[in-house]
What we know:
Elements: H1 2-10, H2 16-41, H3 46-91, E1 95-101, E2 106-109, H4 111-117, H5 121-124, E3 133-134, H6 142-150, E4 157-164, E5 170-181, E6 187-196, H7 198-240, H8 247-276
Antiparallel strand pairs: 1-2, 1-6, 3-4, 4-5, 5-6
Amino acid sequence: MKGSIFRSKFLSLQKPESVAGVYMIFGLVWITLSDRMVEWMFSEDIRQISRFQLFKGFFYVLLTSLLLYFLIRRLYDQISNRNQELELVFTNPDLGMLKLDSKGVMTELSANMETMTGYSKQELMGKTIFDLIHPLPGEDNLEVFRQIIQSGHKEGFQFQFCVRCKNGEEIIFNLFGMGILTKQRKVKSYIVAVENVTEQLRSHQNLEAKNKQIMELAFDQSHLVRAPLARIMAITYLLQEEGLLNENEKAEQIKKLKESSEELDFHVRTISQKMRV
């Protein structure tokens, strides 16, 4: 099991030592086997040995060139695929990248940060990230974030803040960051990924509002509508039965029937208006 794991890691060819190791092993095997073949085939003929050594050298250069081509091509394809993934990240209009120094000052930023906030690169560079973000209503995590940045925190972190754009619009950012360490394991700077989640949160809030409205409509239907409807059904039953009511009682019940019908109509129209909102 351990041997298979070692082979899979070694042959992954994603590190320089893997490429150099494959080339070294191939070269040693080639030299050893080819020299023994020369001794076996041309043990006494010096001219034949010299000619074969020349061809052997040409063949070795050809094989190693092909080997290096495939190794380099594989690494190039991996790098190209990774660059495409990074390009998707950096061209996403709702994603941005920041680099902060140990005090929270913005030293580098992606072009998407300019698009999302409306500020130019010159306006953002040199400012601290604390000048850009504000705590959300009901939250007090700005001081916690400030302490993380200024204390050399080594672990990853995640926060959500409000950002006031240049045009005055407020948008919501998710911040995902981690520290870049020096050889002495001290935080030198921070890389922060910024995601604009304003539309997602608004959609979520709209969905919650719709759910609340549906619950209110269900309550109105089960309570406000059912009460006058039950009275109408009861009065209708009394009026249909002969001999239960005299003329005065029938007139009184008809008056109540009209009132219950108007009440029912009022609640139905109210529910219809709520459904249009």
